[in-house]
Amino acid sequence: MSESLPVSQKALRINDDDDVAVALQDLPAAERLSFGDGEIMLLAPIAAGHKFALRALVAGDAVHKYGFPIGRATSAIAAGEWVHTHNLGTALIGEDAATFSSVAKAIVVTHTPDAVRTFMGYRRADGRVGTRNEIWVLCSVGCVAHTARRVAELGAIRHAGKVDGIHAYTHVFGCSQLGDDLANTRRVLAALASHANVGGVLIVGLGCESLQLQQLLETLAPVASQRIRAFNTQQVDDEMEAGAAALDELVAIAAQDRREPCALADLVIGLKCGGSDGFSGITANPLIGRIADRIAAAGGTPILTEIPEIFGAEHLLIQRAASTQVGVAIAALVQKFKRYFVDHGQPVSENPSPGNITGGITTLEEKSLGAVQKAGSATVTQVLGYGKRINTTGLALLEAPGNDAVSSTALIAAGATILLFTTGRGTPLGFPAPTLKISSNSSLALNKPRWIDFDAGCVLTGEPIETAAERLFELILRTASGETTRNEINGERQIALWKTGVTL
After folding, report:
1. Phi, psi angles (nearest 5°) of residue 136
2. What is the pLDDT of residues 268-317, one digit of tens each?
3. Which of 33, 139, 253, 326 could form an SS bridge with 321, CB 3.0 to 4.6 Å?
4. Which UniProt keywords apply (predicted)?
5. What residues contact residue 355 under an 8 Å CB cut-off, 6+ apart?
């Protein structure tokens, strides 16, 4: 896209090869718009964020947006006609769309490192850096979820102001699970217990659950275990007293931690979109793509996930793989996820959501091509399984579904200390790491100021995207240094685990 959009521009053709343009505002029927040497008259009203045809198409024609196919015309489409679900369909069918015989030659994109900028973070004993110094109360099983919440609530009152916060993150699993499903729950909980944003962790167990507390503790690194307390409620006289005593010990340790200047190489950012609309791939997602590039170039680690929402755009990531091995891993992960859909008797294209469609997104290919822009142009250096933590710097691709809560939790378990969450429809959701909500359009930011931290709709009204990216970058550094996000102010904090197996 262009670096800025004129205020007077009413529609945007993103790529010269596109067959459609996007309305930047509500446009009436019979509106005449100029594109290059030609003029298009709209045959119907076009809502903001929706598409209209720039040339006549016949049924079966590939329809291009972002310079790539977003599906095929399901009927004849006239120039100036609205293009949406009634005349455009996905071309993603079954697993074939994810079969790769080879990996394209890697396109290595370089950026000028930013070695000057710093933020004030908490450096942990293992060298990782947190953006918060909190006490987290986790539960090994859903049976004691409420107990964990009560312990955290009372502890937050008792120790107000001594640390950045005391919060419980609970779930309903940990028992009646088998095999990989149970192992995934254990792996994610262990990763959360070892997170850089915590100065201490209390894990509350029951005692008879499948996810035995001792087994969970044995998976933790010794350096992390020094700041962990745990007990089974079946084995103590009073779980509330035991919880209070454990928090007293943890707060006494964490209260000694202090922020210090840290380099951009110490930042780990999660890249997430939820409730996308027709503007997400034009404003908010490319905007945080600039941030991802800047962090990666400085030696930091951006993490991309939501694997079903890269179907149809995976080639853009494969081409940027750091090695053939990484490229093959990207292809294999996409193929694995498509098999997951097929094994459950579901079409791989069962996306976008109703809200996406209302906002102007028609097919999964269109959604994916907009979504992968969150990853900018950085080289993909690692592919991570669900619940796994980052193992090197540079752009990571993480296995997780598109579900907002599940994928955001996975990003944090992988090591993200800040989430950049773009949205066109809006959501109040928040997660354990500070979650910056970035609206794709200014109407959302205006209507939901308690949800939105940054308005990317400015790109539609003339602000150069690089200027907007610099403002967002400054907000990220302030957030990493302690400035609170809307989700933190609103108390919107939760986790969700990916349930993949049978329930006993």
Report:
1. -110, 135
2. 999 999 999 999 999 999 999 999 999 999 999 999 999 999 999 999 99
3. 326
4. Lyase
5. 275, 277, 425
Torsion angle, alpha carbons of 381, 385, 388, 393, to 10? 0
**What distance in Å separates the CA atoms of residue 376 and residue 133, rounded to the nearest whole number?**
30
Residue type, 341: F
Same domain for 440 and 472, yes or no, is yes
Range of the domain at 461: 269-490
- CA 250, CA 256: separation in Å to the nearest integer? 10
Q: Output the CA torsion sign for 319, 323, 325, 330.
A: negative
Is there a single domain that holds both residue 223 and residue 278?
no
d(CA 460, CA 137): 43
Same-domain pairing of 276 and 423: yes
Tell me the backbone φ, ψ of residue 240, rounded to 5 degrees.
-70, -40
* CATH assignment at residue 211: 3.40.50
- Return phi, psi of residue 109, to 5°: -100, 125
Q: Which residues are 51's β-sheet partners?
A: 22, 83
Residue 498 lies in a domain: no
My answer on whether 317 and 418 are in the same domain is yes
Q: What is the CATH number of the domain that holds 30?
A: 2.30.130.110
In this predicted model, what pLDDT tens digit does every residue of 10-26 receive, in sequence order?
999 999 999 999 999 99
Residue 380 lies in a domain: yes
- With respect to residue 103, please indicate whether it lies within any of the assigned structural domains: no
Beta-bridged to residue 11, according to DSSP, are 23
Tell me the C-alpha distance between 409 and 402, whole Å: 11
User: Mean pLDDT, consecutive 10-residue segments, the chain of 504 residues?
Assistant: 54 94 95 87 96 96 96 97 96 61 43 76 96 98 98 98 98 96 97 97 98 94 86 98 98 98 97 95 96 96 97 94 95 94 88 92 95 96 97 96 97 98 96 98 97 96 94 98 98 96 91
